[in-house]
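Re: weekly structure request thread

Next one in the queue (185 aa):
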Amino acid sequence: MSTSLIIVIVIALVLILMYNSLVAKKNQVENIFASVDTVLKKRYDLIPNLVATVSKYMEHEKSLLTEVTKLRADANKPNISDEQKIALDAKISSALGSIMIAVENYPDLKANENVMHLQGTLNELEEQLSAARRAYNQAVTDYNNAIEMIPTNFMASAMAYKRKQVFEIVESERKNVNVKELFNS
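Done, posted below.
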């Protein structure tokens, strides 16, 4: 076997390995995003029950409930991109957090068995969503590293692979908790 043939075989093997690695990372990102999507769907299915239960009590927060309902409707539209889903997730997280804070101002509502059940279910979904987001972000980080690092970046460019967006926390959740305010309420 000639040296040039061995070199061609080695180069072909390296290209095949790089190609397969990139395809595997892309598929892993899509698979994990599907897991995130499943938990998001459960959360979106919970929202009508939550809004129906709290709307009787929370007349002053009608605009907040309307916003959550609108965001849920936007999230359930067909053919929205992953980036739009990520943006809607951040908005819905913020709005649901506001509803749960508002519930604290209504003692009858806070003690309502349905609301307590919905809060428990929502907390469980948020924990599942958090775990799914972490897995997705790790897969996206691996994917983004692969498409930006040499030598796989050349193959990724030829395959038209683009950077993927990670889930980030909303700006309101980045603020420090005011412990003094919590004890005064």
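The longest helix spans residues 3-55. The mean pLDDT is 87.
Next request, please.
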